[in-house]
Automatic annotation (TrEMBL):
SMART domains: THUMP. Residues 56-168 form the THUMP domain. The lineage of its organism: Bacteria, Bacillati, Cyanobacteriota, Cyanophyceae, Synechococcales. Keywords: Methyltransferase, RNA-binding, Transferase. The keyword Lipoprotein does not apply. SUPFAM superfamilies: S-adenosyl-L-methionine-dependent methyltransferases. GO terms for molecular function: RNA binding; rRNA (guanine-N2-)-methyltransferase activity; rRNA (guanine-N7-)-methyltransferase activity. Signal peptide: none annotated. InterPro entries: DNA_methylase_N6_adenine_CS, RlmKL-like_Mtase, RlmKL-like_Mtase_CS, RlmL_1st, SAM-dependent_MTases_sf, THUMP_dom. It holds the Pfam family THUMP. This is RNA methylase family UPF0020. It comes from Parasynechococcus marenigrum (strain WH8102). Gene3D superfamilies: 3.30.2130.30, Vaccinia Virus protein VP39. The keyword RNA-binding applies.
Length: 388
């Protein structure tokens, strides 16, 4: 006999949740959750557990910059195999209320249980369970949509137990909605936001990216300084939940809009990009993010540029040979960057994302901080150099 608990909660009640975070930014992610009103926050590997009421959960979706996803725990049940999984999923929710055949859905699975060792297979078992229930109720079934589902389900299997959650984002929260095009090795927006947070930049000193690409580091920096909520320009999966509270959502939406600062005298924010087509993409992204006139993009190599009056902050994610560029060419590029900052950036701070220690050696600079992070599965260091 499978015992199970359902935790569909109302406006005034606490729910359990998990924020999925970039590796290396777990502590920052916990701080952000607390600042936005979450309780009982606990760091996990690439994640953080928290408790929140529904208003706070909505607030996190609209205002949190660092999570990939926010998962709302709905049911916990023992799971020692396929039979337990079938019973547990069947009883986890009132599926007649939550998943009508007119809705599409997606199932993501992490972890393992006896006989359930592969995430794709386990997800298929969940899907088959729900389809069976729908056919019994309505004689028809939902379609599967991996990209934009109406209902996104997440199942975690661990130590003989299962946790079924709803993914309120639908599409990953790092997708803010302003970036139409991406380069060959894109930096995700939530990781960019976390890297900027680690620098301590608040908008009051010049900020320059000598390899700005599509402008993500600069855009995330300025939206953070302005307290512009990252989730205002997109749709969320939670808007289709059976217990979605439209009035509460609109209240949190208005609260997020009102946070944007209009009193900040922003220092110069500048990006350099050698490829004119990518420079145009950066300008398009800046416009789409509502930051026209706040970030300047200069076409051409950083060597041809002059920094604004400092001191200030240089931030960059130069290629490190995994996806873009050959190592021999890149070594010369790093050598030139080191010469550029020594000649032009005395008194500035340089923060550089490195996925190749031999290349950063070509800078001929000594890092004062080395913060481990993961960028697309590549083990990296966010390096800080004080330029004398």
């Amino acid at each position: 006999m499978v015992t199970w608990s359902t935790t569909v909660l109302g406006r005034g009640n606490r729910l359990n949740g998990v924020a999925v975070l970039p590796q290396g930014l777990e502590t920052l992610g916990c701080d952000e959750l607390v600042a936005l009103g979450a309780h009982g926050v606990q760091p996990l590997r690439r994640a953080a557990a928290f408790q929140a009421d529904m208003a706070c959960l909505y607030r996190l979706h609209l205002q949190a910059r660092l999570p990939f996803r926010l998962l709302r725990e709905m049911a916990v049940f023992p799971c020692q195999g396929r039979a337990d999984l079938y019973d547990g999923i069947s009883n986890a929710l009132n599926w007649e209320q939550w998943l009508h055949p007119s809705m599409s859905f997606r199932v993501d699975v992490t972890g393992t249980a006896p006989g359930l060792n592969h995430s794709h297979y386990s997800a298929l078992q969940v899907k088959n369970t729900l389809v069976d229930l729908q056919r019994e109720l309505w004689g028809e079934r939902s379609s599967i949509d991996l990209a934009h589902p109406d209902l996104a389900l997440h199942l975690h299997l661990n130590r003989g137990g299962a946790v079924l959650s709803l993914d309120g984002s639908g599409v990953s929260l790092h997708r803010r909605g302003y970036r139409a095009a991406m380069g060959a090795a894109p930096l995700k927006e939530n990781l960019a936001a976390g890297l900027i947070q680690l620098t301590g930049w608040d908008g009051r000193m010049p900020l320059v990216d000598p390899f700005c690409g599509s402008g993500i580091l600069l855009i995330e920096a300025v939206t953070m300084a302005l307290q512009q909520a990252p989730g205002l320009g997109r749709q969320f999966g939670l808007e289709g939940w059976a217990d979605f509270d439209r009035e509460l959502w609109e209240r949190e939406h208005a609260r997020a809009r009102q946070r944007r600062r209009s009193d900040l005298d922003l220092a110069p924010v500048v990006g350099y990009e050698q490829d004119p087509l990518i420079a145009d993409q950066a300008r398009d992204n800046i416009r789409a993010a509502g930051l026209d006139g706040l970030i300047s993009i200069h076409s051409g190599s950083f060597e041809q540029q002059t920094l604004p009056p400092g001191p200030g902050l240089l931030v960059c994610n130069p290629p490190y040979g995994h996806r873009v560029g050959s190592e021999d060419d890149l070594e010369q590029l790093y050598r030139l960057l080191g010469s550029f900052v020594r000649e032009q950036a005395s008194g500035w701070q340089l923060w550089l994302l490195s996925g190749n220690a031999s290349l950063t050696g070509a800078l001929r600079l000594k890092a004062s901080r080395r913060i481990p992070v993961s960028n697309g599965g590549i083990d990296c260091r966010w390096l800080n150099y004080g330029i004398r």
